[in-house]
Fold this protein.
Amino acid sequence: MSHDSDVTTREVVVGVGSAARMADDIDVLLDLGPHHPTSHGMLSLRLSLEHDRVVDADVHAHHLHRGAEKLFEVRDYRQATLLANRHDWLSAFANELGVALAAERLLGIAVPRRATIARTAVVETTRVAHHLAFLIPAGWPRRADAERSAAAAVREACQQLLESATGGRLHTMTAKIGGLRQDVPASWTDELRGVMLAVPGAIDELRSRLQPMPGAPDPAVGLGRLDRAAAQALGVSGPVARASGVDLDLRRDDPSLAYPELADALRVVTRTTGDARARIDVLLDETVNAAELAIAAAALLDAAGPGPVNVPLPKVVRLPEGTTHAWIEAPGGINGYLLVSRGGTTPWRLALRPASFANCSALPHVLRGASLEEIPMVLQSMQLVIGDVAK
């Protein structure tokens, strides 16, 4: 990029998250709202500005690196599954499920049908709650307004559904090798339908909040553009990639769980412009479809009737020697799990490929050209969880 010789470039460090307030080198603090996942930990953006427009960005995640992949090496598979759900606290069940799927593949065991369907219903409930966690702060910057919204009521109802199904509100800790730790309550599918039927109305409310005033330009159009080629080159996945025209969704393209039976209900939502408006619109549409999938999964669960939800295994599982890889379409994108076993009760290697870690690599690309005032909208559209970046 060429620049006029008389243009002055200045460096600014922008901090996002609660820990940024305690950092000494932060020039600008961004608050995306108390409900936004980036309010935890710290993300710093070291920006080069010309005329207050970003020409270069260096991204750093701080404070939340847990060394999970080293901890896996000294944890048995039961403990590893529980540990895995903590890097993305909005998608805890999906995270732990990926480890279970990898271990089940290496063991060569089939999960009971009821567990497979229940897993799918819980994942889609998680997807609704995950997407709303990013959409609500964008629609209502003030906490008091957000808490009175229909979208916030639906998200809270989803959290209650997850808690009643798993026993955990945030860290579900219910996926295990061979199925689930326990079945969902008898009335759970009826409660699930009631909550999911309220999702379209909540999304309509959000659409109206996230649209510009009549006659006003849409500030999200053209902002933070990520084209299809760049998204693929950077390994971006999930809603962010699909907003750039990457027509990839593992629920359709490499289906597991009960997704083959839900093919008629699944709609892979894409856009082509790759800007902040496209990413917001994909999230809105995907939330509605996730609710439809959850309702369809509830119907399958009712039709399946009572039955086992796990394969009886020893408390401490020993996997055969071998290497396998599992991946899932988590709410934020593709989570990958490379599992290497040497025949013991702990993984020799369990490597994670979290969605936010890959999507964060696109931030320097999408921030280029944005002003300081526009950065919050770009970040809100990128759906990052800092713990998932730092893992």
Q: What stands out?
A: The beta strands are 9-16, 28-30, 42-50, 53-62, 175-176, 179-180, 322-330, 333-341, 349-353.
